Amino acid sequence: MRGASIRRYSWLLALLLIGNAHAKDGDALARHNPETGLQSWKTTRQGVTLELTQLTPDQARAFFLGRGFEPADAEHYATACVFMTILRNESAPAAIAYKLAEWRAVTAGGRARPPKLKEDWLKEWEARKLAPAHKIAFEWSQFPSEQTFEPGDWNQGMATFALPHGSRFDLKFRWTVQGKQQENILKGVICANDVSGN
């Protein structure tokens, strides 16, 4: 009887912890991983959830070196501010569509910059004579510049910003649902440094 009671309360505690891990509509959740030193941010509005997790320059560099990139090319990518990005249509009333070019990183002083799109990188890779196999590996790793998600759909990939490591910004992101544009803001996002605990 006691074991059943402990299991029941353990399950309830787990349920409460899981419930607290989800951002309420319009709220943002910031987390710090004590093992890696990395931070992540998550927000939900009108059934649409965006989550950003820091990738350090070392991680970005290692990812592309592991896919056969020349050290100079891997280093070129690692100079950007990089995030693993996940966007979900969890419960919007219909399909959502977004264009990454419409999102803005707003830094101190109100300066707004768009993300650096996959297409921008591909132009640079062309100029740097990146091998075709490496270009394919690159394309598959990046967060799509445009996409449409039905309810329940999601995607992830790396998104980059032309900001110095350690920069802090608020990300204004937009999507369209049923012909209406929606917006949310993920506040206090920080570009990773190679040093943990940034």
- As residue ranges, the low-confidence spans are 1-23
CATH topological fold name: Immunoglobulin-like
Task: Describe the global form.
Answer: globular
What is the name of the CATH architecture?
Sandwich
What Rg do the Cα atoms give? Answer: 19 Å
Structural class: alpha+beta
CATH class: Mainly Beta
The count of domains is 1
Largest sheet: 6 strands, antiparallel
Which helices and strands occur, and which strands form pairs?
Layout: H1 2-20, E1 28-32, E2 39-45, E3 48-55, H2 57-65, H3 71-78, E4 81-89, E5 96-99, E6 104-107, E7 112-113, H4 118-127, H5 132-141, E8 146-149, E9 154-161, E10 168-177, E11 180-190
Antiparallel strand pairs: 1-2, 2-3, 3-4, 4-9, 5-8, 5-10, 6-7, 6-10, 10-11
Helix pairs in contact: 2-3
Which terms summarize this structure?
28% helix; 5 helices; single chain; six-stranded antiparallel sheet; 198 residues; five-stranded antiparallel sheet; Immunoglobulin-like; alpha+beta; disordered N terminus
What do you see in this structure?
This protein is of the alpha+beta class. It is 28% helix and 36% strand. It is built from five helices and eleven strands. The chain has helices spanning 2-20, 57-65, 71-78, 118-127, 132-141, and strands at 28-32, 39-45, 48-55, 81-89, 96-99, 104-107, 112-113, 146-149, 154-161, 168-177, 180-190. Strands 5, 6, 7, 8, 10 and 11 form a six-stranded antiparallel sheet that branches. Mean pLDDT is 87; it is low at 1-23.
